[in-house]
Amino acid sequence: PPWLYPTRPKDIHLENLERARAARSFAVMRRLQRWEAWLALNTATVLWGAQHAVNKHMLVFTSPSALTAARFVLAATAVLPWLPLSRARNSWLDGVKLGLWSTLGFAFQMVGLQYTSASRSSFLLYLNVKLVPLLELMVHGHMPSLQTWAAAAVALLGALLLAFDGGAPNLGDLWSLVAATTSACFIITLGSASRSEGAVAAELNATTAACTAALCSVWAVADAATSTTGSALHDLLQLQAHIAEVAFLGVVTTAFAQWLQALGQARIDATDAAVIFALDPVYGVCFASLWLGEHLGPQGLLGAGCILLANLSQYACFARRTAASAQAESDAELPLSQKLLVDE
Asked: What's the pLDDT at 25?
């Protein structure tokens, strides 16, 4: 009877399994040093840089909604073992919010890629370098440092030079700017969620991927239902024919890269992370040149140099802050007698 067994053995097993999983995830996060967090974010940035050329290539064969839905369904499947089983209300609430921003960002990006080049889209998308400090100030009241504002301004200048490289701005550029705004909102939301009490990077990544997959699937179904050309079957056949590209987008550049982002942003704030992400379009241009044969003119190369300079200057400031923080932690751990000797 229920009064004799208030907690069923199955519930105990699930709770113990989830507790063990959380302990392992926390252990990984506690061992993550600041330089490891920087490396994780830069690795994710390289992977995201590769996605622009692959997305542009795939849009020749399938619709934006079908490709985005297939990508995130694969990503959600890959992270299924890390979905929280019970008592993870905060993880799911954060996952819904992050999934909404993620869906909007990828939807606007994919629609924009139909009208503009992969190189220009990748650079315009990462105008979030400028938008993150502004949104942080508006939402949380966090005043970024002068160095961060200067780096963001240089990155903005580089993006503008790229936007006018090889022709005037087009409709795809506008959609890319909207995608940049939603990307900035995602970065800020993830920064807050990954630092909240009890946050586990793997679970947060899993709930985000699951919610994004659900929302993108709704978009794909609605798009197919309103289509008059019967393109749904064509999209399915093309996705099956290009399963390697879809798997790369879903598993590598989405599930794995977003897990790296969740790990890294647990130690690095959203403003500094956004400047690291500014290297995404530089990698995007390299992959677009190799995969699609796209090339930048002198003005575009100058813009890419500005963004690279902004990233390097911000990293120099970040390295100085990291060294100062490490020194302060080392001094705090010294015994009182040694502190007196150091002061003398």
From this structure: 45
From residue 260, give the alpha-carbon distance in Å to each of 46, 198, 288. 12, 18, 23
Q: For Cα atoms 185, 97, 187, give the angle at the middle one, nearest 5 degrees.
A: 30
Which residues 6+ apart lie within 8 Å of 303 measured at CB?
A: 123, 157, 158, 159, 160, 161, 162, 165, 296
Q: What is the widest separation between alpha-carbon atoms in the chain?
A: 82
Residue 334 corresponds to which amino acid? L
What residue ranges of the chain have pLDDT lower than 50? 1-30, 339-342
Q: What is the pLDDT of residue 31?
A: 52
Sign of CA dihedral 207, 108, 160, 297: positive
